[in-house]
Design a protein that fits this description.
mainly alpha; flat
Length: 151
């Protein structure tokens, strides 16, 4: 396995970990939970601690990835070519559309049924949209990488 393949694999693993972290945050903090009991608060605290640990692991993996690409400038240029930048731009665009779509749907539902979403236990629109956008960004970045897309 060449050094470039190792960098691609490391990038894919960082993206997978970021996608898992964002999906976990979305799945556990966004769905409505009408019961605001003591057990729910303990669960929420546990999820917050777990997500913090996962984000710390993600940050360390990301820094290791950045350090490995900075050692050799020619390697950095080889793994950050135009196709990779285009893939990231496509992922950003998709996440932007998801965020805008969530806000539009939220704005359409809220006037029809005022306060219904909050009564059901949903968080605010910005939290929901940001969580969905973050999950979409990492998922689409993973999907658009050359290694996953081409085989």
């Amino acid at each position: 396995m060449t050094q470039i393949e190792k960098i691609y694999r490391m990038r894919r693993n960082v993206l997978i970990l970021a996608f898992v972290c964002s999906s976990l945050l979305f799945a556990l903090f966004v769905p409505p939970l009408p019961l605001k009991s003591y057990q729910y608060q303990i669960l929420k605290m546990g999820v917050a601690i777990l997500s913090g640990i996962l984000l710390l692991i993600f940050f360390v993996r990301f820094m290791l990835f950045k350090q490995s690409t900075r050692k050799d400038p020619s390697l950095h240029d080889a793994v950050d070519d135009e196709r990779v930048k285009t893939s990231w731009l496509r992922a950003y665009r998709t996440a932007f559309y998801v965020i805008v779509g969530v806000h539009i749907v939220w704005r359409l539902i809220e006037p029809l049924f005022p306060g219904l979403l909050f009564k059901l236990g949903f968080p605010s629109a910005p939290w929901f949209a940001t969580s969905a956008g973050l999950m979409t960004l990492f998922g689409m970045a993973l999907y658009f990488t050359r290694e996953v897309k081409n085989g």
